[in-house]
Amino acid sequence: MFNTSWYLNLQKPLFSPPNWLFAPVWSVLYLCIFTSLAIYIMAQGENKKSGYILFVLQMLLNILWAPVFFGFKSLLGALIVVILLDIFVFLTMVKFFKISKIAGSLLLPYFIWILYATYLNIFYFILN
Predict the structure, then answer these.
(1) Separation between Cα atoms, residue 80 and residue 32, nearest integer Å
(2) What is the pLDDT of residues 60-87, one digit of tens each?
């Protein structure tokens, strides 16, 4: 799908994970993300529409990051996308937590991982 040779030749930031780690981490994270959504859907509460909107927006940003980073090879563009992703995942987590503490808590590992991804993206931008 994407030409990864470009990525493999980038100067790596300190504490970069090995490439094999991404697939298992994202598998667990997506399980948490969509379990959180299922719990949110089933939870009782009023005014849940904003939670759905935030969830969709953060997922669109999540989906957008890879084409910007790997497809367009835009380190700055990907950095902007991941910072917006940080904001929208945080807002989604807060909204979900107000309706269900479990739903909100299940987004915490995702939020921590994308903060780490933001760190990596910042230093990919600086180093390259």
Answers:
(1) 24
(2) 999 999 999 999 999 999 999 999 999 9
- Going through the chain in order, the beta strands assigned E by DSSP cover none
Contacts 24+ apart (CB under 8 A), 92-95: 92/51, 92/54, 92/55, 92/58, 95/50, 95/51, 95/54
Instruction: Please give the model's pTM, rounded to 2 decimal places.
Output: 0.94
CB 82 within 8 A of CB 114: yes
Could you tell me the sign of the dihedral formed by the alpha carbons of 31, 37, 39, 42, in that order?
Answer: negative
Residue 12, pLDDT above cutoff 80:
yes
Chain length of the chain: 128
Extents of the domains making up the chain: 47-128
Distances 83 to 18, 42, 56, 86, 117 between C-alpha atoms, Å:
23, 30, 16, 5, 10
Give burial (CB, 10 Å; 0-12/13-18/19+) of 44.
Answer: exposed
> Across residues 43-59, what is the average pLDDT?
96
Give pLDDT, residue 5.
85
